Every structure is written in structure tokens, then in C-alpha cells.
Amino acid sequence: MAKIGNVSSVANPTFSERFGKFLPIVRVLVVVVVAILPFVGLDAFWTRQIILVALMALTVSGLSLIFGYAGQLNLGQPAMYAAGAYAAGYFSKNFVNDLAINLAIGIAVAVLIGLLVGLPGLRTSGWSLSILSFFLVLLVVPVVNIIGAPIGGFAGLTGIPIAAQFGTQLDANGFYIFVVAVTALWFFLMLNLIKSRHGRALLVVKESTVLASSLGIAPFGTKLKVYAISAIPSGIAGVFFAYLDGYVAPDSFGLNLGVTVLAALVLGGAVSVYGPLIGAAFIIIVPSQLNSFDKYNAIIYGALLVASGIFFNNGIVGIWNSLVRRVFGRKKAATDVSVDFSEVEKVRPVLEKVDGLRLELTNVSKRFGGNQALKSVSAVAEPGQITALIGPNGSGKTTLLNLISGFYKPDEGSSVLIGGNNATGLPVHKVSQLGVGRTFQTPIIPEGLTAREVVAAANFVRHPSTMASSILHLPSYRKARKSDAEVDGVMESMGLASIANEPASSLALGTRRMVELARTVAGANKLILLDEVAAGLDEEEIVELGIMIRALRDSGATVILVEHNFTFVQELADHVLVLAEGAVVADGSPEYVANHPEVLRQYLGEGAAVTGTRTQKSKDGDKK
Amino acid sequence: MTTVLIAGLATGAIYAFIALGYNITHLASGALNFAHANLMMLAVFLSMVGLQLGLNAIIVTVAVAIVVGLLALIEERLAIRLLRNNAAHSELVTTLGVASIITGFIVLIWGSDPLSLPAGSWPTGALDLPGGRVQLSDLLMIVVILVIAAALILISRKTKIGISALARSEDREAAQLRGIDVLKLSMFGFALSGVVVGLAAIPIGTKTLAVSSVILILAIKGFVALTLGGVGSMGGAIVGGLFIGLLEAVVERYVGASFRDLIVFAVFLAVLFIRPQGLFGTVRQRVV
């Protein structure tokens, strides 16, 4: 186990710390250089190649958003591309030939077509979206044929005028600059999106919808929004494609294009803004330089897809990142990184005051098939108090917690009031949005995020900022971004500052639990549900845990603690609720509960039910 | 009318057959095998080659079943077992890759024009039934597929390995704790799915011909059949497949061929909206 302690682990600045500040300038410079290439002697062939790369990169970037970031494999990119191309072709030919207007139309049509499969496909998890979108591509030819003459049917749509903007025809170079500028703009906006909390939210949704919804992120709504956004670049590419040759044929949009787009994505790197650009450049330029490539492309792209699963996680970008990591500082991603809490100062931090939410359960029941997990549980948890929920294994503690957070729907006749709001049967993200935060028995820590990002994910609901304002950097985004800085304060006070930049999934179990707790603290939640947070922690960590739980109580929050360790409960809790076989057997102060005859018999007395539950008091009372 | 119905049932039986294959690998390894229809078409091409060499149809069937079973095992190793990150359905990408590789080789070796299996390799001819004339080969193919389906249902319900697969698909960890070797199970599932397509390759190839362009259509319609019937349900796959086949035949006859896929798509959308778990599927409670 690599103990890092409370000292900064990063002696060398990372690559991004060293060069990150130059990146915005480099990006702009690259765009300018590419834009002026035709004026400094680039020939027509290569100008066209660059346009094709831009079109491919746009299409691939849409897939990167929905698949790389949101984890939903959408193979329908060619259909959206076709939608953009046909919409622009038809409109410019018959109504108005203005590039900007047709871009808007092409985008709108592509998004609509995308939503047609996105709505049903994203509702169920798994592969329905992949299949539906696959099917959608298959429909391009029949649909074009059914519409027939207006868009050219099988023969293709011809006679699309040369692109014009504000009534002026664009020459080849003008069109080239337009394509480069729009492509660059899209990638800058995409960068804003994925660097924002929404980008993080997407990665959380990808890894765990359970976690996402418990942080107030609506999984379906989020996926659907990203899905709609991911159709935009494909629509843009389609519009440019229609203008590029003035001709659109239905067989340009087959499933082969879908496989090519996917191959470009996995080659470049799916979880990156640069991945689509790099992948697109490879997949356009390499085949154009090889004579017999076409014959083998299905085999080569297929091999790329298989290889991506086996050898490289994030394509060329991933390889670059691990190279950079090797050169600058961090040798290798360590595993089981932990914080040594004996070196962490044990000071109770003063957290921001919150208005705790009173939890009121009345006649809460839950039956799973023949198993009555909860029998008419009625209880109250007050703000500014720690309410412990104890009971033998299978007594319904976690079921009750899951029911409060909305993962289970309670049976008829149950009532859950949170801060006076009726939360009975409310979906998880709605419950979370009331100000309810929780931890899990097994900490849910998404891959691919640093510890700091995991903690900052709690901010999603607390300081809302819409996707649009994140993309365009509007004021609410700036405010939200400032609040992310508070995350550092929380991590600092919990002794987690040293691991803030470590990949969260590489942390040791105890540290992961503390990161999860930090996430709950950073969320400034008003009702906090802690599910066996002390399990697997060492003594020092438990001391730190106790300090933080008390700090949460002092902030005014309602704290509910599911716990097996009765010593810990006695030290901490203001109020204890004992469950056995789904029913409340005792409800009162820790002293009252520890001496309750039924509790002693059921749970504490013979020490029969659970290990780790014997306490000083119960040992005394054991009459041994 | 009988002609239309039997033709529809024959197409539907092939969709059902593909859906059965998806179910086998899904139950045994939790993976959706995008390349299953490609393996089936490869089996058709291999059977064609065997028959062209003048080999006995039974020998060809057995040999192709073994070869495709082995190929499916290789696929399991490359596209499923070695996956680095098993989150976010990486197997959708790798099995799609395998699908692309198989199609690529088929086109490279045999070209993209449809080829017939040698005459006499499967009974042909027409039967006059009340309501119209039907193809004997179609009827026999439906029988073969239904027999295989019945055998698969027996395997999944009665044998130890079938029940293990059901247990695995419910809860992988619990199954492992009960001593089920999930890695072997996954290999078995893929091998079985390959053997099964080999067994029906000659009758199916007689109907579809050996041609790469129908692979995608079969793959997708197989998925629709699977979704309609309910993922994991063998009986559901059969009902789903036959229903889609009939629907297509009726639409093609009375509405028009170009609307066929659109209407199947509409049905698919409707199922996902109204009953996403399919006709015979079950909904599971979410657990933290």
C-alpha cells in the first residue's frame, strides 16, 4: 500500500501544470495556421482532404460525447449526417441558399432524427440504443426512396448550388475557411462542455447511474440532452458534405460509415476532445495514400475495434497521456493509494450552516415478493442530530435507506416526509435535489475521475448551471466554477488534499470511503444518509470519520447513520433506532437502547447476530 | 394467403434463429454478440464450399458446426475475455469489430454477389396446400429451426449448464460463489452459439443464398425479435422472430416492399416505449 501521508505527493509539476497555460494560445494558432494553408500554396487535393478530415472529425466528436463521455453506443451517426445533408441540399436548392441558415436547418433536422431513436433507446439501459441507431442507418435508403423525387430517390440529389453567405457566393477557399472556422468553433464549445461539471456528470452517469441519480443528476434527462447535442456536429458535417460536391447519394450513409466513425473514435481516443480530430485525420488521410486499402478496410477497421478493447483504453490520446505521465513526474498510476490519518490534524472543521431536513416516516412498508423487508416503520429524525439505525443483518436497515433515497418504491400506505415535502416514491434524483446526500455500503467511485473531481461531483445540484451556460461560459457557469474551489477547502480539512489529483479508483478502500464522505460534505446536504461508513476503516480513519460526522451535525444537517459498530454509535448518536426483521423494536437515546431488554435479546445480548457489535456496556451487562 | 404466410414464417424463423443465438451468449456470458449473424453467414459460405467439393451434406454440417464453433471460441477469447474495461459495454465495440472482420473476409474471398448452394443439397420443390403453393425447402427449414429451438429450451431449463447460465445472468457474483465457473460458461456459450448456426447452415443458405449483404439485415431483425420476445427468453425469441417475419410478409404483400423495414422499425419503437422488457421478459428491481 503506497502511503502518501499529508505531504504533497507531486514533486514535479505535471505536463498540464507546466504547459497548460499556453494551451488556449496554441489551439487558436493551430486553427489560424490550418485556415490560411490554401493561401500559402496548399493544392486542391489537400484542401479537400482537410475538409474531409473536418467533416469526419465533427461526426466522430458527436460519437465521442455520447459514447466516450456518456457511455451510450450510438451507431446512428451516418443517419444524422444524412439528415443534415439532405435537409441542406433540398433547402438550398429549392428555397434559400445561405450557408448559415442551412446549417441551422441541417442541425435541427439531425437533432430531430436523433431524438426519434434517443427517446426510446435511452430509456432502457444497455444496448437498445445501439440497435435502434443501427436500424436507423439501415432506413436511410428506403426512406430516401419513399420520399422520392423531391430529394432525388435512389439516383441521388443533384443540382445543389454553390454555397453562398449573405448573398455572396463562396469560392473554394472561402468555403474552406468557413468549414475550418465552424469546425474549430464546435470543438471549442465541446471543450467547454466536457471541462465543465456537465462533463464530469456525464462520466458519472457512464460509470454508475445509481451514483449519478443520488447526486441529483437525472440519468435519462442527462443522456438525452447529450444525445441531442451529439447530433449537432453530425448535422453540421452533413450540411458541408452536401455543399462540398453539390450532390448527395443515399448510399454514402451506410453502416460502413458508422463502423469507420467508430474506428476513428477508438483510434484517436473516445474520452478526449483531441481524439476525434486525430482519429479522423488518420482514417481519412491514410487510406487516401494507399492504393488497395478499400479492399481491406472492413477487416482493418474491425481489427482496430477489437484491438481497442484489448490493448488501448483511450486510443492515441491515451498513449500520449501515459507517455507524458512517464516523462513528467508520476511514474505509474499507483494502486491502493491511501492517506495516513495519524498524520492528519484532528480538528473539527466548521461547515457552512444548513437548514436540516426533518425526516418523518409513517407506516413505511416494503415487500419483495414473499419477503416483508419492512413492516410499517414509523420514525422521525431531527435536524442537528445524529440518528443511528442499527439492527442485525437482514433487518431492513439498508432497505430503509434505499427507500428514503428513492431507489425502492414503498408499498401502499407508506409516507415519507423530507423537510415537510412528500417524498414517497419520488425518483432518486428528485429526492437528492431536495438536499439529500448519501454514501454507499460499497463506495461508488467512477473510473477516470480524480478524487477531487469525485468530490466536486456533489456540486452538481448545489449550484446549478445549465449545459448551455457551461458551453458558452455564461455568468451562472462562472459562479458554479467558483463554488468548485470550495471543494479544495473540504478536502483540505479532511486531510485529503494530498490525494486530490490521484485517480479516485486507485485509492484504498478506507480512503475511498473518506472521499465519498467528502463528497457528501461538499454537497452541503441537509439530510445525510451514511450506509456503514465505518466498515473497513482503521482506527485513525474512524476517529477522522467521527469528527466529520459531528461537524455535519453541527452544521445543522439531519444525519442518519447505518452502523454495525455499537461503540461507535454510542459515542456519536443522539438518537438510536433499532430494527429487527423489518420492524422497529426500540427507539430512543443510546443509553435507553443499550438497556432495552428486547434489544439485548435480539441483537446485543448474546452477541449472536453480528460481530463487532459488543460494547463496553453490553459486556458489563452480559453477567458473565 | 398460405404462400405469404409460409414465406413470412420462413423469414421469421431465420430472425428467430439469430435471436436464439444472441440469447445463448447473453445468458452464458452477459455479452451481446454483434457478430452472431456474421458467423451464421460464414457458416453458409463454408457449407457451400464443402458441398461444392462434393462432400456429403451430413459431413459438411458436422464439419461446419465444429469450425464455426471454434471460430466463436476465438471470438470469445479476443472480444470478450481480454477486454480491459468491462464497464460501458465495451463488448459492443469489440464484437462489432469481429463482425466487420468476418464480413471483410467474406467479401474478399467470395465477392459480394449472391451465390447459390449446389443443387440437390437440400430438398426443393413446391407443395400445393389449400390457399396456395409453398416451397418445400422453406417448410423443412422452419422444422429444422424449431427442432433446434426446442433442444435449446431443454438445455437451458433442464441441464446443469443451462441452469448455471440462468443463475449467472441473474447474479454473476452469487453464481460464482455457488461454484459456477463463469469463464468456462462463457466459452461454452460462444462455442454452442457457433455450433448451432453450423447445424442449420444448409437449409438457411438455401433460403437466403450465400451473400454478405443480408448479414446486417438479419442481425438487426434478430435484435428486434430478441427485444420483442424479451431478452433471455428462448420462447420469446421464437415468437418475436416469427411475428416479425409474418408482419414483413403481410406489409410487403399489401403495402409495399419499401415500407417493410419502416414498419418493423415502428413496431420496435412501440415495444421499447410500451413494454421495454419485451413480451416474455421480466423487470428487475434496482439494488444498491
Summary, kept brief:
Helices cover 55% and strands 10% of the residues of chain A.
| N-end to C-end Cα span of chain A | 41 Å
User: Please, how many helices of chain B?
Assistant: 12
Give the C-alpha Rg of chain A: 29 Å
Would you count the extended β strands of chain A for me? 12
Cross-sheet strand order for the largest sheet of chain A: 8-9-10-5-11-12
The domain tally of chain B reads 1
Number of domains of chain A: 2
Low-confidence stretches of chain B: none
Proportion of residues in helical segments of chain A: 40-55%
β-sheet strand percentage of chain B: under 5%
Under CATH, the topology of the largest domain in chain A can be stated as ABC transporter involved in vitamin B12 uptake, BtuC
Relevant terms:
heterodimer; A: 624 residues; alpha/beta; ABC transporter involved in vitamin B12 uptake, BtuC; Rossmann fold; 2 domains; 6-stranded mixed sheet; 4-stranded antiparallel sheet; 27 helices; 12 strands; elongated; disordered N terminus; disordered C terminus; B: 288 residues; mainly alpha; two-stranded antiparallel sheet; 2 strands; globular
Give the SSE layout.
The complex is a heterodimer of chains A (624) and B (288).
Chain A: H1 15-19, H2 23-36, H3 44-69, H4 77-94, H5 99-123, H6 128-138, H7 140-147, E1 164-165, E2 168-169, H8 172-195, H9 197-207, H10 209-214, H11 219-245, H12 255-268, H13 274-289, H14 293-310, H15 315-327, E3 359-368, E4 371-381, E5 386-390, H16 397-405, E6 415-418, E7 421-422, H17 428-433, E8 436-438, H18 451-456, H19 459-462, H20 467-472, H21 475-493, H22 509-522, E9 527-531, H23 539-554, E10 558-562, H24 566-572, E11 575-580, E12 583-588, H25 590-594, H26 597-604, H27 616-620
Parallel strand pairs in A: 5-10, 5-11, 8-9, 9-10
Antiparallel strand pairs in A: 1-2, 3-4, 3-6, 6-7, 11-12
Chain B: H1 2-29, H2 36-52, H3 57-81, H4 90-110, E1 126-129, E2 132-135, H5 136-158, H6 160-170, H7 172-177, H8 182-199, H9 201-208, H10 215-229, H11 234-254, H12 260-274
Antiparallel strand pairs in B: 1-2
Helix pairs in contact in B: 1-5, 1-6, 1-8, 1-10, 1-11, 2-3, 2-4, 2-8, 2-9, 2-10, 3-4, 3-8, 5-6, 5-9, 10-11, 10-12, 11-12
